[in-house]
Amino acid sequence: MTPFYISLKPFLDYRKLPRPTLWNEIFANQKPLEVEIGFGNGEYLARLAESRPDTNFVGFEEYCERIHKTLRKLSRVNNDNVRVLRMDVRPAFEYLFSPESISYIHCLYPPPWPKKSDIKHRLFTTDFLKRVNHRLTLNGVLKIVTDHHPYILWVQEQLPTSGFKATLKSIAASYDTKFERKWVEGGQKEFYELILTKEESMELPQKKEADVKLYRLNHFDPHHFQMKPYSESGIAVVFKDILYDEAKKTALIHLLVNDEHIFQNIRVVVYQTPQGWQMNLAEGTMMMPTAGIAKAWELVYEAAQSRV
Residues 265, 269, 274, CA angle at the centre, nearest 5°? Predict the structure, then answer.
């Protein structure tokens, strides 16, 4: 079997990084830092790293298969100037970057979520744009490329009060990514490139991580577990479902947590031990310990303890 990748060196575990992260120490140099949001299969990120050894690059992606493919491409890049993380970029920008630490941000073909009911999932809201602004150097740039014109119009609606100057132009296929090639093969000839240049700095507080307590349960009935939706003080927690393995005495609880503009999709495992039931994060769950996560943890504990 052919391995997905040759080296894991470019891959970073965000859970082990200091917050904010000192990227000049990660790369052991003082080169400018650029970020790619949603690098897909890594074609563009690998080309950037290969062609620009004078710059450091950090890429974010949520899908394991895409990360595997990207690591294979990066193993053929001669320069040690790129790192990749598997996580949602919203908490990444909240916790992993200092103010004015990024010179350029690339985002090629973000999901447009075209259905009206799905617009809430779009990334570049006014709140997130302000956070991006806060992380960019003065005159730093955010580049967004899409095939979906209504999406670009929506992003432009989010720009007032975000501190950016916008320049929009129609372009031909220019980035040679998997998705772009697919659309070109389907007959699309026009794409849209939005360049946002930071003109004014947004003042935002640096958030601290919340303490997430560890709970041991005196009682837990997985067959009658119920949890009401919670919404208060900018935090929303929604219980999606629970799966229970009777043989292993293990339950998997799926939650959606929205903490202001940071959306996290987490799974909590509750399992029986000789000392009682124990709560923990399910293996592979991506999570930043925000106030919303701490509240969700508390709500799961309270619901699990209930004997209703």
Answer: 165
* Sequence-separated (6 or more) residues with CB below 8 Å from residue 232: none
pTM score, whole prediction:
0.79
What is the residue-level pLDDT of the chain in tens, covering all 308 positions?
Answer: 455 556 788 999 888 899 899 999 999 999 999 999 999 999 999 999 999 999 999 999 988 889 999 999 998 888 899 999 998 898 899 889 999 999 999 999 999 999 988 898 899 999 999 999 999 999 999 999 999 999 999 999 999 999 999 999 999 999 999 989 999 999 999 999 999 999 999 888 776 666 667 788 888 999 999 999 999 888 999 999 999 999 999 999 999 998 866 778 889 999 998 888 999 888 777 677 788 888 998 999 999 888 65
Domain limits, the chain: 11-198, 216-305
Q: 11-198 falls under which CATH superfamily?
A: Vaccinia Virus protein VP39 (3.40.50.150)
SS3 per-residue string spanning 69-120: HHHHHHCCCCCCCEEEEECCHHHHHHHCCCCCCEEEEEEECCCCCCCHHHHH
The count of residues in the chain is 308
| Rounded distance between C-alpha atoms, residue 233 and residue 171, angstroms | 43
What is the rounded CA–CA span in Å between residue 14 and residue 286? 9
DSSP H/E element including 28: none
Assess whether the previous peptide bond of 274 is cis (omega < 30° from 0). Answer: no
Contact between 144 and 191 under an 8 Å Cβ cutoff? The reply is: no
